[in-house]
Amino acid sequence: MYTKEYLTDQLIKMGIEPTDTVAIHTSMKAIGDVDGGADTLLDVFIEYLIDGLFIVPTHTWENVNKESPLFDVNKTKPCIGIVPTIAAFHPRGIRSLNPTHSVAAFGRRAKSYIARDLEFETPTHPQGCWGKLYDENAKILLIGVGQDRNTFLHAVDEIIDMPERLTDELIPYQVRLYDGRIVERPMRRHYNPHTNDVSQFFTKFDDAFAYHNAVEIGEFGNAKVQICNARICAKVFKNIMNKSDKDLCVDDLPIPDEFYK
Predict the structure, then answer these.
(1) CA distance from start to end of the chain
(2) Please, what is the Cα angle at 188 between 184 and 194, to 5 degrees?
(3) Contacts with 230 (C-beta within 8 Å, 6 or more apart), sequence order
C-alpha cells in the first residue's frame, strides 16, 4: 500500500518543483492501493505544491447540457471520476466557473488563476484555465492515462484556431455562483462533424512528443506517468497540423514521420 511519504518522494523523483504549475489526469485503478485513497493523493499534490499551482479537472460536460443547462459550482458533480469529485468540493481549493470544463485550483495563486473563467464562450479558451497552462509553462501529468485524456490539447486546438472543433451554436448555460446567485453564460461546445470524439486520436501524437522531448516518463504508485511540457507539446502539435492538408484527428491514419522530424 502506498503512503503519502512514498508518493511525495515519487513526485520529487519526477523532477516536479514545489513552485511548478501542475495539472493532473488520473486513474486510481492504475495507481493501485493508496493509504487513504484519493484524499491522500490530493494531499500529496496540495501540500507539495503550496507555493506553486495545482490544477485538477472537474469537468461536467456530460451532465450539464441543453436539457440540464445549470452548473452549480457548489453542487454539480464532475463526470470524470473520484479524484475530480473530491477535488471539486475540497476545502483547500477553489473551483472555476466554466459550465462544462471547470477545474479545482490549489495553491497561493489559485483564486487569481481561475478568476476569468466565466468570461469566455468556449470550453478551453486560450485565456481560460486550460489555455493558460501554456502561459504557465505547466507540467501536465497523465497518471495511468494517455493523451486521449489530455484536456490541454483541446486548448491547443483553440490557441491555433483549428476548424471544426466547436459548435457554431451557443448553448444557453446558467451558472450558480459561490454566493448562490445565478448568471447566464451562453457557451459553445466541443464538436466535430466527422467523429464523436476528436480526443481519441490525440494518442497519435505520442511518437512526435517523444521525438521532441515534450514528454518524459515517471512513476506514481503502480502507474506510468507521462510528464508533458505544455509549451513543447503545443509547439509540436501546431507544427504537425500546419504541415498537413487534412485534419489528423478525424481518422485512423498514422502521422507521417516526416511531419515531426
Answers:
(1) 42
(2) 160
(3) 133, 134, 136, 137, 138, 139, 140, 152
- CA angle 103/105/107 to nearest 5° reads 170
The residue whose grid cell reads 466565466 is 118
Rounded CA gap, 39 and 86, in Å?
Answer: 7
pLDDT at 175: 98
Integer-rounded Cα radius of gyration of the chain: 18
Q: Which residues contact 210 (CB under 8 A, 6 or more apart)?
A: none
Find cell 497523465 and name the residue: 142
CB crowding 54-78: b at 16 or more within 10 Å, else e: bbbbbbbbeebeeeebebbbeebeb
Given a cut of 90, is residue 251 above it in pLDDT? no
* DSSP labels, 112-153: HHTTTTTS-SSTT-TTSTTTHHHHTT-EEEEES--GGG-THH
Q: Please give the single-letter amino acid code of residue 80.
A: I
Which residues neighbour 31 within 8 Å (Cβ) at sequence distance 6 or greater?
2, 41, 143, 144, 220, 221, 222, 223
Task: Determine the Cα–Cα distance for residues 232 and 188; give it in Å rounded to an integer.
Answer: 27
Element holding 190 (H helix, E strand): none
Q: What is the pTM of this model?
A: 0.97
Backbone dihedral angles phi then psi of residue 25, each to the nearest 5 degrees: -125, 130
